[in-house]
């Protein structure tokens, strides 16, 4: 009798948990539906309160300026954004002794004294052989870097092989910054194929060794690749690799076919949190594919679509996406030809998403306290 009673209690708890989950989803849908009706009424009347206009516009500016600060805030103390320029190399140590400059430094000793956090090889114009030599030296050093910055350093296929060798030998690397390295389609495809191969090897190793670190951030901004590279990246996005930050800014050779591949991949992605697509020629057609992917995506919270050639129709696609999406809380639409009224309506859905995300976090905290 005690056993039957225990089973009955367990079934009751499971049933209650399922019902609570269904109720939460139903409440979210109801809130979205109510907001949609309110917006339709507002559109019919054709008026917006002046105070709301000012508040939404102000909040938009806050969102757009805070986005990148939140993205990189945890690394501000150790990372310099390669696309914005890097700090000059110091000419002397704190004790006054001279620091060897780039042309003088060579060998694994160059990295032996690093603290294992940041390796900055940005803005180097030293040729393939020297870049490969530096990557090989880092691979053979005792350093365990977390971020490797090669931004603004021209890379070729040979250099990509060295980057992949480095990622294999240094599993500590969580971010690889390759912005403005002129990789092109073939090199991006080679890089992605190599990363996926390493991922499969690490998955197998994690089963044997109880978890292995993986790459979490990839910056391929302004790398001059087109649809071939985009289709390769779609395979990366669709995979189970735990990349949470992906920067594809300023790759204007990608057409609607490439954005369709990426949009389709977003539907299956479960790890991305920040997606940067600004300064691409996405247009209304391309953003429709992106919006379709984001509509069902459950992990992405921040999307940058600054200056991607959107007009009102593209904005309406994003509006329809936000009616279904429950996770996006930051959306940058600066530099697009979208009406202020439509932007304000989208911000209302984003505000609702923020409220729902906060409620879920509070519920999660309460559950952790109970158990």
Automatic annotation (TrEMBL):
Protein's organism: Arion vulgaris
SMART domains registered for this protein in UniProt: LRR_RI
TM region positions: none
Protein name as annotated: RNI-like protein
Record keyword Repeat present: yes
GO cellular component: cytosol; nucleus; perinuclear region of cytoplasm
InterPro entries: Leu-rich_rpt, LRR_dom_sf, RanGap
Listed Gene3D superfamilies: Ribonuclease Inhibitor
Gene Ontology process terms (BP): nucleocytoplasmic transport
Domain of life of the native organism: Eukaryota
